[in-house]
UniProtKB/TrEMBL annotation:
GO terms for molecular function: hydrolase activity. Transmembrane segments: none annotated. Residues 23-152 form the Metallo-beta-lactamase domain. CDD domains: metallo-hydrolase-like_MBL-fold. InterPro entries: Metallo-B-lactamas, RibonucZ/Hydroxyglut_hydro, Sec-metab_biosynth-thioest, WH-like_DNA-bd_sf. PANTHER family: ENDORIBONUCLEASE LACTB2 (PTHR23131). This is Putative hydrolase (Beta-lactamase-like). Keywords: Hydrolase.
Length: 219
């Protein structure tokens, strides 16, 4: 059974990677609303344009893998950027980035990178903020039983459940950072080596982002 509600189409960009998982998820709604056009990839954008009459474009945050394609898609379709339809509520969810938002309908929460379909989101220091992220997750815990349609990875059955897990995971990481400092870690790199020892070396830079954000929060 698909977790994607009727009237919502997933078009995934061909930009897989460590940070993008299978690729950026572009969500196209039956009324012509596009959420996160993704990269400036003509093939991807043409697939979006073919999905129906595109009327408006919304973005969950300003990272390039979500917004690079906006200008080209506007030229292709004449769509308006930022016009939120009446049935879709914009909820500010800073933390991953300062400008992060989610879009909420009766049938789904479009979570961008605040909640991913797999794993945990990076708090993108210095723009991201751990305290804001924890509060945003508390907000998303209120959407019990509503599917989360993320910016990367598969759809999740329950936004509230995912938000609770991420909230607990983030608090656990903070305790691990405190322990690393108590054991003598002096620099973000030393904290990364102690707390994120099992992380793929290719992702150590992202772990350092999160550690710097965690240190800011703790101090």
């Amino acid at each position: 059974m698909s977790l994607v509600p009727e009237g919502v189409l997933l078009i995934r960009a061909d930009n897989p990677g460590y940070m993008t998982l299978e690729g950026t998820n572009t969500w196209v709604l039956s009324d012509g609303t596009v959420i996160d056009p993704g990269p400036d990839d003509p093939i991807h954008l043409e697939a979006i344009a073919r999905a129906g009459q595109i009327k408006r474009i919304l973005v969950t945050h300003g990272h390039p893998d979500h917004v690079e394609g906006v200008d080209r898609l506007v030229k292709m379709t004449g769509a308006v950027v930022g016009e939120v339809p009446s049935y879709l509520r914009e909820v500010k969810t800073p933390g991953h980035t300062a400008d992060s938002v989610c879009f909420v309908s009766d049938s789904a929460v479009f979570t961008g990178d605040t909640i991913l379909g797999r794993g945990s989101s990076v708090v993108a220091w210095p723009d991201g903020n751990v305290g804001d992220y924890l509060k945003s997750l508390e907000t998303l815990m209120t959407f019990q039983g509503v599917p989360a349609l993320p910016g990367h990875g598969p759809a999740l059955p329950d936004c509230a459940q995912a938000a609770r897990w991420l909230h607990g995971h983030r608090l656990e990481r903070l305790e691990q950072v405190k322990a690393a400092l108590a054991q003598g870690a002096k620099t973000p790199q030393e904290v990364v080596d102690m707390v994120y020892a099992d992380v793929d070396p290719a992702l150590k830079w992202a772990a350092e982002w999160s550690v710097r954000a965690q240190l800011d929060y703790l101090t």
